[in-house]
Amino acid sequence: MSQTSRQNTIERVDFSHKSHYLTKAFKSPFYSRQEPLNHLKEWGRWADYLSPAAYTCSAMEYFACRNTCTVFDLTPMTKYHISGTDALPYLNRLVTRDVSKIKPGRVGYSVWCADDGQVVDDGTIFHISEGVYRLCSQERHLDWLMTNTIGFDVSLHEETHDVAALALQGPTSCATLKRMGLEDIENMKMFDIRHFPFEGTQLMVSRTGFTGDLGYELWIDPNHAEALWDRLFEAGQLHGIKPMGDEALQMLRVEAGFIQAGHDFMPAHATVRSGYTRSPFELGLGWLVDFKKPVFNGRKALLSEKENGHRYNLVKLDIDGNKPGCDSYVFTKNKKQIGTVTSAAWSPSAKASIALASVEAPHGEPGEELLVEIYYQKELKWSRVMAKARVVKDVFWNPPRKRMTPPDDY
Amino acid sequence: MRTYPTSECNAESTTNGEPVSMKKYDAIVIGAGHNGLTNAAYLAKAGLDVLMVEKNTYVGGATASRELHKNWIYSNASYVSSLLRPEVFRSLELAKYGLQIVPYAGGNVTMSEDGDYIGSYVDPDVSRRDMARISPRDANAKVRFDRDLMRQCRFIRQFLLRTAPDPTSFKPRDLMGMLQMGKALMDLGEDVIYDMMRLYTMSISEYLDEYFEHPLIKAAKAGSGIIGSAMGVMSPGTAYVLLHHAMGDVDGTMGAWGFARGGTGAIAVAMKDCFEDHGGTLETGSGVEQILVNNGKVTGVALENGNEYQADIVVSNMTLPRTFLECMDKKDLDPEFLRRVRNFKIRGSSGKVNMALDGLPKFTALEGNPELISGDLHVVDSIERLELAYDDWKNGTWSKDPYLDILIPTLTDPTMAPPGKHFMSVFVQYVPPKVNGKDWTDAQRDQFGQTVMNQIEKYAPGFKDLVLHAEIRTPRELENEIGLTEGNIFQGELTMDQLLFNRPIPGYAQYRGPAKGLYMCGSSNHPGGGIMAAPGANAAREILRDIRKPNTVPEGWLDD
Predict the structure, then answer these.
(1) Tens of pLDDT, residues B460-502
(2) Of the candidates A60, A172, A350, which has its C-beta nearest B105's C-beta?
(3) A399: closest CA of chain B, how far (Å)
């Protein structure tokens, strides 16, 4: 297929005309490849895009990611391009961590706060080349990012729809990329970025992901999206490659202990009710707050919080029994209600009922025994169980291969 | 390519030619199969100083995985997992020790001689339609079949991680246990109780007649009624064996089956790592010569290599006959007990052919269906053919038209063979422990292997050309290498007379042997075979109870 005909097949997100209302959800640049593989014909929504909830069976897709490798379309993720002479000081002002430590060719995870120290969002900062950054997040922040440019010489624009992206995750992901011909891919370390020539354009690969396993994210011009998908699946055929939808991703990210805006915390700029937002400390992200930086958004409030204590702890719970504690209240052993589960799953890998929960401080120290009130239904009859739960320190899934360089072929 | 850890151990020779003797342990566990490892791990976790002895240079017993062809990891005996208790998985933290159970994408398919098949899939609607394709009525009857089977599963599952109560005992816990069992029975309701009596006594063939009419559908369901049993599909008692295969689950999907990633041996390796992490000592490479008894109490074990170890607790994971008829001085046992042990039903009925394949075989009937080929593949298409296969066994030879349970784990697991190459595991029934009353010869073993390969070739032309290496295991190999008496995969047949408080034999169903300090933890004991880890776990609980140590063994989760 020639490049021009490819361009014609891809429907781009376009809301420059009044008629955009006729399209409630746009097709991703990978749609032509996703559609025939989506046997269930169930499409979910992710912001502007159609996003498969599952292609064939979410449980099997989950296992494919822990056993072989899976492809997840992350094109809909919000992306901003940030450059200019003041890009670094600008970002250092914006986020809580020290961005100067994210060298060119590296990625860093961070949170950013409003002046009151409450988390606006979390996301990843890609230092693509000297002074050129990409900020990825769940929510859209153009107003806040523009507001923060005052006084800085930076150039900033949203590039969500201009970059197609796939997450290739799982133990055979490196073997697949090697077979695809990405030279020296095995020597990429976690959070490294590399660029590879790809059919006349450039393919950017980062060793990042949202599954807690060995994995990579691939970034490309949308006009080459279909070619990337094809090459990837061709290379992965003997390595058990499978497409994966959002349902499986939710199980994977809870096992990996990753939080998500709108699930585990409310983005500060979209929260109506006072006291419903969280600070980085309250999300277990205190390690991302670098007070050595003299100025950054929320610093004063966070410093005061550090001295005076915070209100909540986000904890990982290992819950007895086999019922996932979705939407449950959390109690102390003495039945005092202290919080709620924010995300929960049955972990097929740990063979445990696991959850992330927000509890009132000082509760939530690792080792603390709590109770989780779980409602569940069997053949239309509801039952309730007060399940014992332990606060655990480590994430539920953290295989050595995630960090290993070079990783094994499986 | 990295070699995935197999069950092979660095044979720790503690001998250097000289017999080492008389270190005293708190407990000695004999046999590093998955139940022995489970038992030893729980004892070690409770703080006991535990020695595990294993005759082979590798752990796993019937759950071993070995690299018999370069870059190919085999699942040499057990090949799929469903029954492994999640409570054990979790409490021994097997995930931390690297164990992953991955369900396979295919359900199972039974191919017919005329080129058709009946397949079951992960997607229930697709399964129903494939059944309806050949019998719309049977497809609907399956709802009733599944309901009835699930009712029975729910009843039996609650007794898996529990010691069977002794109906003749007046001890409070036995009385309570019987009361619980009675209550669970009454909770089922009248119809289900009637059905239970029928299920436990009927043949699988008769039981299926209650639901289905299409011969291919009946043949597809009948297979799991005979696996591991020296009984035919028309023999009374085979309906229960179906239940035994249906009561497992993978992550709550009851009846689902999966592979241990890295081969079945990954289960044993994870358990071994857990055991050693809790301070346990493993000695491989020498079998037990004798379990030592003095004045009705065990005192330790003497190994074949001359080493002797002392302990007040000796736990045998060997089969019932192997423990008492081969590894004990008969004078230490009473004759009535020995008679029952001799009569324990542990007849060999199956064999195994494991193969390294140069590529993926093409089964004509499947027309390239990538989902079905990932699951269990069966090739015997009628109840009558299954029964004829059993006739050969009765006549003292292996089935000439054998029932096969074929799996290609490498379609799911990327770790067992190079990309594009495959490992094929073939479970074969029926295979007698002796051929016409005489020991197997190597030539007969190879003929048996050919019978199996020819059977597959009929359904997948060109298959034989793909075979790079084959491990052919008759009951002789299963007994000699693994220690399974007569090659019976369940360490004793799963018939009503040998279940619950009658397993292995009346009066000895609570894991305690006839000498003080002697325990049994293998599948010969309640609740029986399969990679369940329940006998090993239950035995550990009893031992810890006897020596008044804190219990480290979990109770079963309830199916409510």
Answers:
(1) 999 999 999 999 999 999 999 999 999 999 999 999 899 999 9
(2) A60
(3) 8
For residue A294, whether the previous peptide bond is cis, meaning omega lies within 30 degrees of 0, is no
pLDDT of residue B21: 58
Q: Are B81 and B251 in contact (CB under 8 A)?
A: no
- Could you say which architecture CATH assigns to the domain A79-154+279-309? 2-Layer Sandwich (3.30)
The 10s digit of each residue's pLDDT in B148-174 is: 999 999 898 889 999 999 999 999 999
Q: Does B452 score more than 70 pLDDT?
A: yes
Pairing of strands B72-75, B65-69: antiparallel
Q: Residue A208: helix, strand or coil by DSSP?
A: coil
Asked whether B45 and B26 are in contact (CB, 8 A), the reply is no
Q: Which residues of B touch A238 (CB under 8 A)?
A: 419-420
Is B2 within 8 Å of A409 when comparing Cβ atoms? yes
Map tokens 């030879």 to a residue.
Answer: B397
Q: Residue ranges of chain A with pLDDT lower than 50?
A: 1-7
Using DSSP's 3-state secondary structure scheme, residue A116 falls into: coil
Residue B131 above 70 pLDDT?
yes
Number of structural domains, chain B? Answer: 2
pLDDT band at B106 (very low <50, low <70, confident <90, very high): confident
Distance separating alpha carbons of residues A352 and A360, to the nearest angstrom:
24
CATH value at residue B331: 3.50.50.60
Neighbouring CB atoms inside 10 A of B185's CB total 13
Determine, yes or no, domain membership for B244: no
| Prediction pTM value | 0.95
> How far is the alpha carbon of B408 from chain A, nearest alpha carbon, in Å?
14
Task: Report pLDDT for B83.
Answer: 87
Three-state DSSP class for residue A375? strand
- Determine, for residues A66 and B100 on separate chains, whether the beta-carbon distance falls below 8 Å: yes
Give me the pLDDT at residue B19, please: 56
Same domain, B449 and B539: no
For the stretch B377-406, pLDDT in tens is: 999 999 999 999 999 999 999 999 999 999
d(CA A364, CA A351): 22
3-state secondary structure (DSSP) of residue B146: helix
Residues with Cβ within 8 Å of residue A142, at least 6 apart in sequence? A80, A158
Q: How many CA atoms lie within 13 A of A209 on its CB side?
A: 31
Distance, CA of A396 to CA of A336 (rounded, Å): 26
The CATH number fitting domain A311-410, selected from 2.40.30.110, 2.40.50.320, 3.40.50.150, 1.10.1740.10: 2.40.30.110
Q: Do B252 and A322 touch (CB under 8 A)?
A: yes
Note the CATH number of domain A3-75+163-255. Answer: 3.30.1360.120
Asked whether A206 and A193 are in contact (CB, 8 A), the reply is: yes
Q: Are residues B461 and B389 in the same domain?
A: yes
Residue pair B517/B539 in contact (Cβ under 8 Å)? The answer is no
Report d(CA A70, CA B455) in Å as an integer: 36
Let me know: does B282 contact B276? Beta carbons within 8 Å. yes
Q: In what order do the strands lie in the sheet with A164-169?
A: A193-198, A201-206, A215-220, A164-169, A69-73, A241-243
Q: Where are the domains of chain A?
A: 3-75+163-255, 79-154+279-309, 311-410
pLDDT reported for residue B369:
95
| pLDDT tens digits, B348-370 | 999 999 999 999 999 999 999 99
Is the peptide bond preceding residue B19 cis, with omega within 30 degrees of 0?
no
SS3 helix, strand, coil % of chain B, rounded to 5?
40, 20, 40
Of all helices (H) and strands (E), which one includes residue A104?
none
A-B contacts at Cβ under 8 angstroms: 61
In which domain, by residue range, is B49 found?
21-101+261-344+507-546
Q: How far apart are CA A181 and CA B460, in angstroms?
A: 34
